[in-house]
Amino acid sequence: MIDPDRSSPPNYEEFEAVSLYCPRCRESLPVQQRLLLVLPDGELYEYCCERCGTVVGKKKNDVPFGFPCGALKNDDEWRR
Asked: What is the pLDDT of residue 68?
């Protein structure tokens, strides 16, 4: 049943992991996010287990490094 008082569900654009399953420790543990590479089309991160340091996941942000969202729409503005 749909609740008429509730608006549409929120749009989640990006998630950050707090804990992930570590195959070495054999349980879900907190992770640390580390920047791996800065690419022309975004940034590549890896998630490491806080207990043993094993890489348990990766993530890529599609926002170019150093540019806030929407900054590339008006190239002429920042050239002035």
From this structure: 55
Ordered DSSP codes for 26-66: TEEEEEEEEEEEEETTEEEEEEEETTT--EEEEEEE-SPTT
Element (H, E) at 21: strand 19-22
Residues 12-68 have pLDDT tens digits of: 777 788 999 999 999 999 999 999 998 888 899 999 999 999 999 999 888 755 555
Residue with tokens 């549409």: 8
Domain range summary for the chain, segments of one domain joined by +:
19-66
Radius of gyration of the chain (CA): 18
Distance CA(59)–CA(42), nearest Å, equals 10
In which element (H, E) is residue 75 found? Answer: helix 75-79
Give dist(CA 69, CA 80) in Å, integer: 19
